[in-house]
Fold:
Amino acid sequence: PTPIPPASAFGSNPNSGSTNQMSLGGSNSFEIGGAMSGSMGGPIGGAPAAAVPTATAPAPHVFDPNAAAAKKNTDDTNAMTPAFEEDYDNEPPLLEELGVNFPHIYSKSKAVLFPYGKHAKSLDSGLIENDADLAGPLAFALGLGGELLLSGKLHFGYVYGFGVSGCLAMTLLLNLLNPNGAVSAWTVVSILGYALLPVNLLAGVNALVRVNNLGPWGMVASVITIAWSTMASARLFERGCNMRAQRFLVAYPTALLYSAFVMITIF
Structure:
């Protein structure tokens, strides 16, 4: 057997006064007795911290009515708490949020009534292209249907049918003809809707006096209305979409569209 060396051969710790003892066995295991101390006399690392017990709330039972009521009150409180505070003082007007701008509607209506006057020239191209409001066109379409109703004609379906199909066809045609980029469908709807104003005037006259009973004068009034709406829409397309070179190609399909509206007005 291997002799075990004495404990004094391993030395001692002068600070603690304890002696480190090691025993070597056949299993190559050793034990170091005593507490290790630093140069300041305290134990290195200190004593292990005692675990602090945490109190966990018991899970509420499924059939506990008090737990269900407490959960409902918590949900109601969270629902009533706003995610952010509304600034009602700086809130924009309702019409502005809806995109209804009466000065713009008035300016575009005057540009349709006087397509080659100073009102049409004063319109900015960005106002026509970017401010594609639908409040004016929707009002003119409803007004045309109401005036036809006063004449004893329930043609709301025809008005919206011709309007939607004509706007889709004109959007496709303008995007094929325009060399300066794409034309928005809302811009087309806005321009064609505003140019419906002369047809509204003819429908108002027809509600008082039957235009088809006026003979040649009724036909002249119808042709003037078609030409008026065509010139107004072509002028707005020319200025809003920068399509001066294609204005006659744009005027032909718009003339066909307004001819359909005039036909359902007088017949």
User: Anything to note?
Assistant: The CA atoms of residues 39 and 258 lie 104 Å apart.
